[in-house]
Amino acid sequence: MQKKLKIKKGDLVTVIAGEYKTKDIKGRVLAVNRDNNRAIVEGVNMVSKHTKPNTKAPKGGILKKEAPIHISNLMVIDPASGKPTRIGRRLNDKNKLVRYSKKSGEEIK
């Protein structure tokens, strides 16, 4: 059984460690790889990929794309304050397990 991660696709996150920490970038999570504990975040960890001409890129050349970053280097942005926060899990009033912000206590959708 795979461990539940605190970050999901579509979350707004910021980088808290590594090369992109100083740039104070906030971005949406585009994909999560639970096997490697990595996520692809919009505008973070950009790499150059050399491509041959194909139907998507008829001229080919060098494309910029996001590479995966380890989940431990990311932190979810609190929907209320806009600052990084830790994530907890609790039962809501409908008896469903939901994620919530530890800073504001607000539910994270």
Mean pLDDT: 92
Largest sheet: 6 strands, antiparallel
Spatial arrangement of strands, main beta sheet: 6-3-2-1-7-8
Proportion of β residues?
A: 35-45%
Distance between the termini: 24 Å
Q: How many β-strands, per DSSP?
A: 11
* CATH class group of the largest domain: Mainly Beta
Output the radius of gyration. Answer: 17 Å
Kindly name the structural category. mainly beta
Q: Give the assembly state of these chains.
A: single chain
Helix content: under 10%
Query: Any idea how many domains?
Result: 2
CATH architecture label name of the largest domain: Roll
Any chance you could write out the topology, listing elements then pairs?
Elements: E1 12-15, E2 26-33, E3 38-41, E4 46-51, E5 61-66, E6 69-70, E7 74-77, E8 84-85, E9 87-91, E10 97-101, E11 107-108
Antiparallel strand pairs: 1-2, 1-7, 2-3, 3-6, 4-5, 7-8, 9-10, 10-11
